[in-house]
Amino acid sequence: MSPALGRGVEVTGPTWPATDGIAPVGAAGDDTRVRVTTRAAAVIATAGIASAAYQHAADAADRRRYPPPGRLVDVGGRRLHLLAMGEGTPAVVIVPALGSNVLEWVRVLRGASAETTVCAYDRAGLGWSDPQHGTAGIDAMADDLHALLKAADIAPPYVIAGNSMGGVVARRFQARYPEDVTGMLLIDSSHEDQARRLGDGAWGVLWRAARRRMRVLGLRRVAAHLGLVGGLDAASLAWETVPEYEGAAKALTLSTKERRAVAREMLVLGRPLGQPQSLGALPLAVLSAGSASRRRWPIWAPWAQLQDELAALSSDSAYMYAVNAGHNVHLDDPGVVVQAIRDLVDRCRRDRAQ
Questions:
Q1: Which residue, among 204, 223, 221, 211, has the nearest Cα to 262 in the 3D structure?
Q2: Domain range spanning residue 260?
């Protein structure tokens, strides 16, 4: 105790002399930690800015390097990308899965175009399509598709083919525009109630569908070019699309716009969407993934039950399993999807001829 304080006074602070130029013990260490932390924060901030700048410049370069393979169609101040092939009616309209673009469907389009007009499109923010302003729910997606087909002069009636989340959009399209739809193909389709019925497994489905497209910022882009990012290697790109579009597929996966659109779609599909509506006697084909590895999936049983329920939506339905394919049936076995389209188009033509 300092003599100047006297007895009975409790010392609550440090007892060193208040001598100028003498710092308390530990203060120098604290200053060092502050300097190190400040410098680290500055390095991180600089790296973040550099990463964002590189990402922005690379996105712009990719847009110039990879023009859209189809048409950009104005739908009220925004443009949606449509890729169409073939001639004839009814036109087949493919609604891709969560986060997917038209490049995944080129093989199917080429195979089915000998039968009739067949087209696929990029939903808002995906592929070459402009992003959606505001909240984009399933109704808005269905309305976007209707506006696109009308603006592109693709006349109804349509055979609408929905893959995964695209199946939900296809059914909502039919509910809102029933006179435009003459048949429906559901390809390992999502179910409106899957978020509740599958529980945590539903988020696993969404994450596996979208995780490659969520890895996109500048530093990740550098890693991708160095071959350090899974899903963007040569074998994966060759599985995803035809050789002439592999570069574009990689660029789209790495784009900021597509990442944001994927996140938005995950939020939409991650919540319950009610129950699917009856399709009456609409010609319906349900093509579900049925490979051996798919059947070992931890939530195979409830997923298969949901597929059964979708097949029961119409009194005129055919239910098939793609035994050589996982969830991405159109990539694992495009031939079976082409055949399913041809068979359904034939059914619809026979029905309309009667």
A1: 211
A2: 66-216+255-353
CATH code of residue 131: 3.40.50.1820
Residue 231 lies in a domain: no
211 pLDDT tier (thresholds 50, 70, 90): low
What mean pLDDT is predicted for residues 131-141?
85
Structural domain includes residue 142: yes
Cβ proximity of 93 and 160 under 8 Å? yes
Tokens 């990012």 belong to: 229
Dist. CA 337–CA 327, nearest whole Å: 12
Give the pTM.
0.79
Structure confidence at residue 78 (pLDDT): 94
In a domain, 19, yes or no: no
Report d(CA 313, CA 192) in Å as an integer: 13
21-39 mean pLDDT = 55
Residue 16 lies in a domain: no
Say how many CA atoms lie within 13 Å of 354 toward its Cβ: 6
Q: Which token pair is 282?
A: 């609409």
Confidence at residue 195, expressed as pLDDT on a 0 to 100 scale: 85
Determine whether 187 is exposed, middle or buried from the number of CB atoms within 10 Å of its CB (0-12, 13-18, 19+).
Answer: buried
Residue 295 has pLDDT above 80, yes or no: yes
Higher pLDDT, 201 or 275: 275
* Total number of domains in the chain: 1
Cα 296 to Cα 115, 116, 195, 293, 316: the distances in Å are: 35, 37, 20, 5, 30
Tell me which residue of 329, 37, 23 sits closest to 185, measured CA to CA.
329
Whole-number pLDDT of residue 226: 46
Residues in the chain: 354
Cα gap 12→137, rounded to integer Å: 62
The identity of residue 188, as a single letter, is: D
